[in-house]
Amino acid sequence: AARDRDAAWDAMALSHLGERSHLRAALNSVNLDARPEGIARSVPLSAAGAIVSRQHGTDLRRTWRRTQERFPDARHEVADTGPLVLRWAPLLVALHGERWSGTATESPLPAADADHRVSRWLAGLADRRLVELHLITASDHLLAGLCVFRWRRISYSWRLARNPGLQKLGLGIQVFHRAIAHAAARGDAAFNLGRGDESYKQTWSSERADVWRARCPGPGLRWQLLDWSGRLSGRKWGSRWAAALRL
After folding, report:
1. Tens digits of per-residue pLDDT, 138-150?
2. pTM of the predicted structure, to 2 decimals
3. Taking 70 as the threshold, does the pLDDT of residue 49 lie above it?
4. Residue 177: alpha-carbon gap to chain centroid
5. What values do phi and psi take at 43, rounded to 5?
6. Does 240 score more than 50 pLDDT?
7. What angle do CA 38, 54, 144 make, to 5 degrees?
8. Which residues contact 26 (CB under 8 A, 6 or more apart)?
9. Is residue 69 classed exposed, middle or buried when 0-12, 13-18 and 19+ CB atoms within 10 A define those classes?
10. What span, in angstroms and rounded, lies between the C-alpha atoms of 160 and 149?
11. How far apart are CA 4 and CA 65, in angstroms?
């Protein structure tokens, strides 16, 4: 789309791009305005399992015992096929929405889309072994979940969901840890913890990388003139930009 001069798009906005991402490299031929927007951390893995400190591992086992005391049938499971993802994805989306409900940050995954766009999209990727859902469940109820994308032996976390009423159980940390251990046992090279620099990410990883935000004007002459006139005059044309594509 970026290279097609006849494409009918006004502007393209790409968020959360890795500095060395393939997509960013492919866009080097277009007029790209890129800047660092945050950081992401990555955990290097080995076949022996996830890398955690002894004290952190003890804390994880303690929180898991507390979870099982409250939910004796609590267990971790992996949904990695289309039918399983279709079953659990709507619940994960709904739980993600509950987590952010009433806060300044609204969930980007509205529950109304779960059965149609999000769930079917994830299920199709699961059938191609590109996505899996890590779940902590009890009596067929979802307590916490994490969507993980896989590409070239690297796992990428996306959309952590957890029951907001069970915050003291540390369910988010538990599901993250089990997803990392699963990726390590499978032989993945690294587990990307996603954007942000929370304390638990610092505990697991010292490897950090910039996350970039990029945008470029559309192929039409009108938008290119607007872009360059804004740069020369220093004016902000933010209201003129239409986010035609967001990743």
Report:
1. 998 999 999 999 9
2. 0.75
3. no
4. 15
5. -100, 120
6. no
7. 55
8. 2
9. exposed
10. 12
11. 56
| DSSP characters over the chain | --S-TT---SEEEEEEEETT-HHHHHTTTS--EEEEEEEEEEEE-BTTB----HHHHHHHHHHHHHHHHH-TT-EEEEE-SHHHHHHHHHHHHHHHHHHHTTSSSPPSS-GGGIIIIIHHHHHHHHHTTSEEEEEEEETTEEEEEEEEEEETTEEEEEEEEE-GGGGGGTHHHHHHHHHHHHHHHHT-SEEEEEE---HHHHHH--EEEEEEEEEEE-SSHHHHHHHHHHHHHT---GGG-------
Residues ≥6 apart with Cβ < 8 Å to 42: 154, 190, 191, 192, 193, 205, 207, 208, 209
Amino acid, single-letter form, for residue 134: H
Report yes or no: 130 and 150 within 8 Å, Cβ to Cβ. yes
- For residue range 79-119, what is the model confidence (pLDDT) as tens digits? 999 999 999 998 888 888 776 665 555 555 555 555 567 88
Q: Are 181 and 50 in contact (CB under 8 A)?
A: yes
Owner of token pair 């220093």: 234
Please identify which residue in the block is written with the tokens 């002459």. 221
- Check pLDDT > 50 for residue 243: no
- Is the CB of residue 52 less than 8 Å from the CB of residue 204? yes
